[in-house]
Design brief:
The protein is mainly α. The protein is built from three helices and no strands. The chain has a domain of about 35 residues.
Length: about 50
């Protein structure tokens, strides 16, 4: 399930709040959640420096 959640998050279909709900529902582990949220912060920073 994680690959699909990751893909949807990277496409912008899932937001941080959605990931938190998936974590609370047991579809994401703490490690998976932190991996995605950490990637979002890094990606946002990289996008800001490229613009």
């Amino acid at each position: 399930m994680f690959p699909y959640i990751k893909l949807y998050f990277e496409m912008g279909l899932y937001k941080d709040a959605d990931l938190l709900n998936l974590k609370k529902g047991g579809l994401l582990s703490d490690d998976e959640y932190n991996q995605l949220v950490g990637n979002a912060t890094t990606t946002d920073t990289n996008k800001a420096t490229k613009n």
